[in-house]
Design a protein that fits this description.
By secondary structure, this protein is of the alpha/beta class. The protein has 11 helices and 14 strands.
């Protein structure tokens, strides 16, 4: 018995002295190495825009597979917030982070409808093989949108059995799966626009994984949580761009936005402002920084408008 205790103490001292060598079992490391390849982790990180100094969240972090890899990818200077709702999982994750010697990871216990993330703090967030379990997905996505910086990205990756592609959402929930179209609509409803969708993203026999990249729709009407007056009205209108690999398109329909939202976006430099009144009205006074293009001729300037590289807001009074 004493020998057993001595061995245990010796192991503990080894972990304290050499935290980076702490032993996640060799079998687990082998499985994770294989998983890194078939789940295309490098491509997931590329979709997130991961780089040194970035602040990212791993939502539904589980055993820390992505967390530990993200921690190394954002070093030096970056941080990872690893979120899970299960108390036991959170404790195991904290242990692994300590054993891996990672000093740039914060482990957070979230709630089913709230990841407990600071607003406007994240360059990217990722959810891998966890979104299908989120019953309160609407609230979760809204809060993730709040946590992202204006140019932040949300990446969701989910497994799917090919034969279940056309099942109802309730059936998929019972099978612990979700299809891409459901999540695309969830994201739009929560104030995101779709930057990229890849289905399949990975394939292993009859099992696939799809990938979604969503970015905050800066022209979406704010929710009550946004502390903005959604009842305020404005005669400003804006083209809501769609995106493909982050390139904006001007083909989407117009959307009126509240004046308070228009003002906020203009002050943050997130929109280009076009004055579509007559030249005389423009010369007599206009919003600072606004470009004049008469309403009658705006169709002739579509290519020029694309060069702004951001959503376009127009006003006529």
């Amino acid at each position: 018995m004493r020998k057993w205790h001595r061995g245990a103490v010796g192991l503990l001292l080894a972990l304290v002295a050499f935290p980076s060598q702490a032993q996640v079992p060799a079998k687990v490391r082998q499985e994770e190495t294989a998983r890194e390849a078939y789940q295309r982790v490098a491509d997931i990180f590329h979709a997130m825009g991961v780089q040194a100094g970035a602040v990212v969240a791993d939502v539904g972090a589980g055993g820390g597979f992505l967390t530990v890899r993200l921690a190394r990818a954002v070093a030096p200077g970056g941080r990872v917030i690893a979120v899970d709702t299960d108390t036991r999982v959170v404790e195991r994750l904290r242990t692994r982070v300590q054993q891996e010697g990672l000093t740039n990871v914060e482990v957070v216990q979230g709630a089913e409808d709230d990841p407990h993330l600071t607003p406007d703090s994240l360059d990217a967030a990722v959810i891998v093989n966890a979104y299908h379990e989120m019953r309160a997905h609407e609230a979760m996505l809204r809060r993730l949108r709040r946590a992202l910086k204006p140019k932040g990205r949300l990446v969701i990756v989910e497994p799917l059995t090919e034969k279940r592609r056309h099942e109802s959402r309730d059936v998929l929930f019972r099978m612990h799966e979700i299809t891409l179209p459901f999540v695309e609509q969830d994201a739009r409803d929560a104030g995101f626009r779709i930057a990229r969708a890849e289905d399949p993203f990975t394939e292993r026999g009859s099992d696939i994984m799809w990938l979604l990249v969503a970015v905050p729709d800066l022209l979406a009407l704010p929710t009550a949580e946004g502390n903005l007056d959604s009842e305020s009205s404005s005669r400003s209108s804006a083209s809501r761009p769609t995106a493909s690999d982050d390139e904006a398109s001007l083909a989407s329909p117009d959307l009126r936005i509240p004046f308070v939202r228009f003002k906020q976006l203009r002050e943050q430099g997130e929109i280009a402002v076009i004055d579509v009144r007559s030249e005389e009205e423009y010369e007599s006074g206009h919003i600072p920084g606004a470009t004049w293009i008469s309403l009658e001729k705006i169709g002739e300037h579509v290519e020029g408008l694309r060069k702004f590289g951001k959503p376009i807001a127009t006003y006529c009074s």
